[in-house]
Amino acid sequence: MTQPSAFKRLAGQEFFGPFLALLIISLFVALTTPSFLDPQNFRNIALQVSILSIVAIGSTIVIITGGIDLSPGSMIAFLTMCLAVFIKNQGMDLGPAIALTLLIGCALGIGNGILVAYVGIPAFIVTLAGLSAFKGLALTLNGGTPAFSLSEQLGQVFYGTFLGLPLPFFYVIGSYLLFMVIMEHTRLGREIYAVGGNENAARLSGINVARVRLIAFSFAGACAAFGAVLLAARLNSGSPNYGANIELQAIAAAVVGGASLAGGRGRVVSSLIGSLIIVVVQNGLNLNAVTTSMQSLTIGLIILIAVGLDVWRARLGRGLARLTGQRTA
Amino acid sequence: MTTPLWELVNICKAFPGVRANDGISIRLNAGEIHALLGENGCGKSTLIKILSGVHQPDNGEIRLNGVPLTLGSPIDARTKGVATVFQEFSLAPTLSVAENIFLGRYPRRGPFVDWARMQAEAERILASLEIRIDPRRLVGSLSVAEQQLVEIAKAISVEATLLILDEPTTALGAHEILVLHNLLRRMKSRGVAVLYISHRLDEVVELVDTATILKDGRVASTAEATRLDIPSIVTAMIGTSVDEHYPKEQNATNEVLIEVEGLWSAAGARGASFSVQRGEVFGLGGVIGSGRTEIARAVFGADKITGGRVRVAGRKLRLRSPRDAIAAGIALVPENRKFDGLFFNFNGGPNITSAAIGSIRRLFLLNKSEEARITTNYIRDLEISPAAATKFVNLLSGGNQQKIVIARWLFAQSQVLILDEPTQGIDIGAKIAVYRLINQLTARGCAVILISSDHAELIAMSDRIGIVRGGAVVETRPASQITHAHLVQASASAATAA
């Protein structure tokens, strides 16, 4: 047997399809819209994708367990308001205020997780309730109005640089490395995939299924909280309207990146590629002055195409397996 | 010889890893009740599914009045005159009896459903079958026996030349069975061919005109050859070459490893007691539904335990979940490996290590090269297909899949292995490999609890056998003192008693 070439090995990876799609889409946008290649535009894309891609990590992990999380958007609205109130109304220092905001995010995620894993309410319902409830919580703070000009230094959290590179670059790389290691190389990651793949078999293998689900939701809370802090820093403000619809984009990023809503399949790194696809498409539409409504429509179509391709690929795979007799290997 | 009404000629059908039907020919004459008999896994279900259009044969012919025809789908089979009553009910519980009988072909007046006619027709059909059920009642509110009768009424409400009944009496009481048998005799006198499948040999010899017996996907006794008395049927079902492929080793010691005392579970163990020694294979015999699987799940902590004790090596266990059982060295190879055993999103390696994943860690990280090494070893030792190392397990044959589930518990170093139907749906080579694994386990001092509906296998591989009825072990004997006929009879009497 010969060693497969580097290209073949790359092509065998689950994220290769989404990666190819990203290249094709970028090429198309670049050819049709010259301003796409402008360095300033690249910077915009990078800043935009940083927040979405971090939130998408949490959504992807929940999807891998076979669940779904509709709550990050409203959670982000609430958490930007928390941060604003801590800094502006309570006069807290930046560090403790951010730390507390992150903790609240984890706690909300754990709350979702308890309701799903231990009370037994379906994830869709729990997080749909969260979508509404967290928005409501956000409106109870600061009289329900946005809080602007929070702090001179807060912007630095987002706009600062390190070694000449913008900080969000490091946040994204750091988060992705951390969660890739957790998902691919730890017992917990293996158990998350096992629960998503076959819950019965996981339980009968001695895996604490409820605990695994709880942890997945707490990760989602932590990722949403990190996104909230970055969003508040970027805009130096908090608002009950921030984060709207980001949960759908994050789910789209996961699915476009190849995660299966049935659970058990998907890679953390794919959700970065998925996020890039969504942001590049949006950016291309923006540059061509396409209206927001058309943009929503386009994102919807992308999700349909991505899932459609997945279904089609699975069918094709089965057909090929039959033809080559792999099934009875 | 006259041309039969329906005829199956040399039907072959293979599934991955198993030849379910291997050249089966059967002649079904008009006005004749024909029994199709055989043990679980002999190919009866596959044959019925081919006749009712669910499966297509790989080879062979179906003939109606001597003319070959294709039954391309269940609807196609139905329109060509095959009515089938399956074991699993196909009724919609939220609809009325009349609606269920006419499901998919409601009588109409113009664009609207003609409810009055549907009602009247349903009443007529039920009356002709002497079934006293109000057609307006919801099916969900009927007893299981009544539902079974509605199912039959539905099947024969359309003109049929062939009526197939798969275990129609499992849920019926004595009176309902009588009603059903009378009904079948009337169908027979109308010139319908009836194919009747049942495990209850007493009622079979009472009812049918002729019987074909299947074994391992082939005809073991043709209709012409079968004598309609229970002992000869049992002999034909068992076959002549029973124990040649059972490489049983005697490894039982005197040291008791697991003791189960008066175990009750919410799911259906009802005061089960037994003990198993190191190196011993303890078989659990009994019919499907007798509670064998429920006892196994309770011992494994998978169902909530409501009473009783389990001791392993003298230590009393607190079994709140499978985790507790695994920690105590108990393992369960579940009956349904697809549903309860395998992770189809993993290749062989993670499937093998899933119950002891903690033992391949280096600090916080999984030692994947160690996992690959372990996988390679099990693939070699258990003769698993090498594809298991790199391919998702859904691409493997049933035998390879089963070996992977067993390897999981070898790797977890379990001491007590509960094997629930471990050879179901796997080919003979893989079966023998599983038997050898059982020998290896007992030689190592493990205790094995074997559940099997394959009586020959159960008798040959067990040291002692406990007969299970109603969730408890009612009788325990050395396997050498139990015959196949004894098990069949015990099962039959259990069914009659139920």
From TrEMBL, chain A:
One of its GO terms (molecular function) is transmembrane transporter activity. The chain crosses the membrane at residues 15-33, 45-64, 99-125, 157-182, 214-236, 242-261, 268-287, 293-312. GO terms for cellular component: plasma membrane. It is found in: Cell membrane. Keywords: Cell membrane, Membrane, Transmembrane, Transmembrane helix. Pfam families: BPD_transp_2. InterPro entries: ABC_transp_permease. It is a multi-pass membrane protein. PANTHER family: ABC TRANSPORTER PERMEASE PROTEIN YPHD-RELATED-RELATED. This is Ribose transport system permease protein.
UniProtKB/TrEMBL annotation, chain B:
GO terms for cellular component: plasma membrane. InterPro entries: AAA+_ATPase, ABC_carbohydrate_import_ATPase, ABC_transporter-like_ATP-bd, ABC_transporter-like_CS, P-loop_NTPase. GO terms for molecular function: ATP binding; ATP hydrolysis activity. Its main location: membrane. SUPFAM superfamilies: P-loop containing nucleoside triphosphate hydrolases. It comes from the Bacteria. PANTHER family: CARBOHYDRATE TRANSPORT ATP-BINDING PROTEIN MG119-RELATED, GALACTOFURANOSE TRANSPORTER ATP-BINDING PROTEIN YTFR. This is Ribose transport system ATP-binding protein. It comes from Gemmobacter aquatilis.
